[in-house]
Design brief:
The chain is elongated, with a radius of gyration of 21 Å. It has five helices and no strands. The protein is mainly α. It has one domain.
């Protein structure tokens, strides 16, 4: 039990600063691209010379990318809950199983939304090109696909844990 306590303490120590760093870096990039650094948009390679970028287009771009970051933050919070439960000695509890499942759901959502946003980004960025917008492009990263599979594993692990807890309770009631 002491090993689980120590490992969960390390996890909490690592998650805490990342909960600050991750949204800062992700939103810094999105805010710069969308609003704070207009030249970055024009230097993207998808925007033709003479294109006038409407403010609403920048808002749409920001709103397309933001859910991936929010889901990533929620995934980190769910993982932090799991580590907190373990740190406090709560192991085989339905709350732990639910938190693991939520971490999986939010991990899947974050990477899935990221893939979607990357597919529509060239079209959004090039909406105001004189020759017309670029089409949707199929884009994926093997890293994001791997993260989706990890999220699926968390989801499955949480579901198995819930069933095991349910079976253990039924066995206790039977005896």
């Amino acid at each position: 039990m002491i090993r689980i306590h120590n490992m969960s303490t390390v996890a909490l120590i690592l998650i805490a600063p990342f909960l600050i760093y991750y949204p800062y870096k992700a939103f810094e990039w999105q805010l710069n691209m969308s609003f704070l650094d207009p030249q970055r948009w024009l230097n993207s390679g998808w925007v033709e010379a003479g294109a006038e970028i409407a403010p609403l287009t920048r808002v749409v771009y920001f709103l397309v990318w933001s859910p991936a970051v929010v889901a990533g933050i929620l995934s980190l919070l769910a993982a932090g809950c799991v580590a907190w439960f373990f740190h406090n000695g709560v192991l085989f509890d339905d709350r732990v199983a639910r938190a693991i499942m939520w971490a999986g759901r939010f991990t899947i959502a974050s990477s899935g939304i990221h893939i979607f946003a990357a597919c529509v980004s060239p079209m959004i960025v090039s909406w105001h090109n004189p020759s017309g917008p670029l089409p949707l492009r199929f884009w994926f990263s093997s890293a994001h696909c791997l993260i989706i599979f990890c999220g699926m594993a968390f989801l499955l692990l949480g579901a198995v844990m819930r069933e095991a807890i349910k079976m253990a309770r039924e066995n206790e009631e039977f005896v």
